[in-house]
Amino acid sequence: MNTIKLKTDSGVSDIILGEPLADFPxxxxxxxxxxxxxxxxxxxxxxGYGKKxxxxxxxxxxxxxxxxxxxxxxxxxxxxxxxxYRFLAKGRFERRSWLxxxxxxxxxxxxxxxxxxxxxxxxxxQVPTTLLAQVDxxxxxxxxxxxxxxxxxxxxxxxxxxxxxxxxLLKSLPKPQWRTGAAEVIKxxxxxxxxxxxxxxxxxxxxxxxxxxxWNPIIARCAQIKADVVRKDPRETxxxxxxxxxxxxxxxxxxxxxxYHAYTHGEAISIGMFVAGxxxxxxxxLEGLDRIRINTLLTKAGLPSGVKHPIPRPRLMxxxxxxxxVENGAVKxxxxxxxxxxxxxxxxxxxxxxxxxxxxxx
Length: 362
What we know:
Layout: E1 2-8, E2 11-17, H1 24-31, E3 36-42, H2 43-59, E4 63-69, H3 78-90, E5 98-103, H4 105-117, E6 124-128, H5 131-137, E7 142-147, E8 150-157, E9 162-165, H6 175-192, H7 194-207, H8 215-232, H9 248-257, H10 265-282, H11 288-300, H12 313-320, E10 326-327, E11 330-338, E12 341-347, H13 350-359
Parallel strand pairs: 2-9, 3-4, 3-5, 5-6, 6-9
Antiparallel strand pairs: 1-2, 7-8, 10-11, 11-12
């Protein structure tokens, strides 16, 4: 069993890589025999993976219930959290009960925040079923929901006790979700591993055809990078964890400014990385050839360099100003000093930001 143990002040995660979903109930039985379990699943997988997981848990002697949640970012709200609270309260779930999130990043954020706050904290596990969640969102203990004023503005640091990452679950992943996950994978190569970036350059055409065993070491490497960064800077106070947000300041602003339905997360982050790469070159941090390599790889993965329709600049800037990395009213960007090396906390001159945004049609 390939396990990464991530220990922080907000909890300890056992990140299990490459084991079949069918083995999860037996593993949980060793950790929490007889516990009551609520499986909260994205509607897209509730009837499949969610139902199978509940059946497996019942077979192992757990009292398990399934609750489906509508797919998409629009479910990541305080209203949906309240619905989960009431489900747990009516079902008499206790502090030793468990929550299990089955789905992508939205499920992990939503269920994690619910677990962190219900009864002031109950254990939870993540079973990520998307590439994005397996390489990034399920790891690190950031939980949260969106409010109309911005993305992820309400949340907590709360580690999942278990992350059960079975790459075989990706066989049913729709192609747009592959592109979303690929954006985060490319990000990891760009900010932390030049060798991974080179591997992606060589294999991206094949990788984007769907799941194959070639994905397994890539998923594992991204998970390891994420865990290493979080271990060193668990609450994003030293600037290191902020590097994981390369492309995310502009990307999150695009998502919020378009009400979370015009672009997938990966598409928005891709545009954000185009902007951040442009800024990195303007600031004389990144060689032009390396910026071209990043842009080429994103394009090869089917990801956009700019918006489909113009977003009014004042609206975009309003959401950008609400970014979590704002300090004293100024947005601090994550830029690249080269392939595999990122630097956070960079303030950008207005004329540079204007040029970079304009280059992506913003």
